[in-house]
Backbone:
């Protein structure tokens, strides 16, 4: 073999090794989802894909769109109507985090002016690209101020989660109808 062929071979092998090393970096995030019977917060873990995403690098051709995903492109990773409706529904609360690719909206604690001794927090998860009744999940947290002035976890009315989800779904339908005209 000539020297130039050996050099090319080692260059290709080195480049392949470099690309392989970059593709395995993943991050894991924990989001509070609910409170158990003892008042402890239960967390849901999500893993963010590596540098090249979950499907790796496409060198030749095009990827086929998955018809189950309801369209695509490089926009947000969840249903746009549910995403917008969730933000509209929770617009009165300060946002802690909003991830349009993962479909996660986390609010900060909100104290209604009428009840200064209680506060609420809402987590919304959009579960896919389809506009479906089971495509959104909301969890409401509530705290009240005790006699010493500290915030203590309190029970949430059982229908609170469902009411928020229904409000989001109603708003999403309104947005879809408005978009069709």
Residues:
């Amino acid at each position: 073999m000539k020297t130039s062929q050996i050099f090319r071979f080692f260059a290709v092998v080195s480049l392949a090794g470099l690309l392989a090393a970059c593709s395995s970096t993943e991050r894991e995030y924990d989001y509070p989802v609910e409170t158990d019977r003892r008042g402890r917060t239960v967390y849901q873990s999500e893993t963010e894909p590596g540098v090249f995403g979950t499907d790796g690098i496409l060198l030749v051709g095009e990827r086929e769109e998955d018809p189950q995903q309801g369209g695509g492109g490089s926009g947000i990773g969840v249903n746009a109507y549910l995403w917008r409706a969730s933000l509209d529904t929770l617009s009165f609360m300060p946002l802690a985090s909003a991830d349009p690719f993962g479909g996660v909206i986390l609010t900060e604690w909100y104290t209604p002016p009428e009840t200064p001794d209680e506060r609420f927090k809402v987590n919304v998860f959009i579960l896919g690209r389809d506009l479906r009744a089971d495509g959104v999940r909301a969890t409401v947290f509530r705290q009240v101020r005790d006699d010493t002035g500290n915030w203590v976890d309190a029970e949430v009315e059982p229908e609170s989660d469902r009411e928020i989800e229904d409000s989001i779904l109603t708003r999403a339908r309104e947005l879809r109808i408005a978009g069709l005209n």
Notes: The longest helix spans residues 160-180.
